[in-house]
Predict the structure.
Amino acid sequence: MVSYVLNDNPNVSISRETRERVLAAAKKLNYTPNRIAQSMRTQKSRVLGLATFWDISDSVFTDILKGIDSVAEKHGYAVTYCHIKNTSSADKIIDLYNQRQIDGVIFLLHVDAAKNFTEKNFLKKIKNQQIPAVIINGSTQDEDLSYVYIDYYNTSSVAVEYLYSLGHRKLAYMLPDKDEVNRRQAVQRINGFKAALTDLGLDQYAPFYFDQDTVGELIKILREEDVERKPTAIVAHKTNYAAFLLKALLEAGVKVPDDVSVIALNDNYIADYLTPPLTSVRVPTYSIGQKSAELLFDILKGKILNEKLKLPNKVVERQSCRPLV
């Protein structure tokens, strides 16, 4: 009976009074369950794997990990980190699963293809071993697997809708540099921006596109007397691009948000420390981690899932955007 209580056996009915007495005694004796013995007996490790290319110091990774861990903890699970180097890293995941060191795995992948990594072949190996898995992001959409995507397209449409609600009608877009402009996430953000303009009838204003090399052209237009050409707001591809832009505008004597509003399509801790503090679009990374873990636990319970989810982004208002009266 004591063993059933301490191991939280769901198949045995135990009275509340008995359970409380056993747990109180265990606490008094500082009893700690032997997880290795439990694993051998139940064939479960009570550990989830989080496998990724991402730099573990990246705020996206840490937020997603926190979200996963919050759900894992509720189920009495721990989370272990697995580094992905290339396609053959699937073999390491398979070994961990076969050795009962993990019960399932969440893959945090890149939406753009990584060097020496073929996502389709990688996931095929995981599927062939019937390893319970959920993918965050990724460049594929396997019909047999569940995905929680970062919605890059929506970041820009949310930004445009927010600026529109403030009365802005003439918008500019700060493109990423040449190394990044053709990446999938950049293309999705740019396409989201264009579609939002069309939906709101703002494409008639012929938005101005620029990058770090052509910021001077934007500044020249902002200084002109011809108000018809001037954008009233700028959508910057990412916070680091917006930081460069804010510095350039400050040095040129262009005031933000008095002369022009600025919003970035991702959120970063530095946004609070820029001048002025930068309004941005926050991707729900913590919630993405939570949802991916919830899906994985559903799979561990025997549910067959092939969910394809995108969680909503939201604007974090600071001081770089102003309403037009």
User: Anything to note?
Assistant: The chain is about 40% helix and 15% strand. Residues 1-33 form one domain. The chain has a mean pLDDT of 88. The first strand starts at residue 47 and ends at 52.
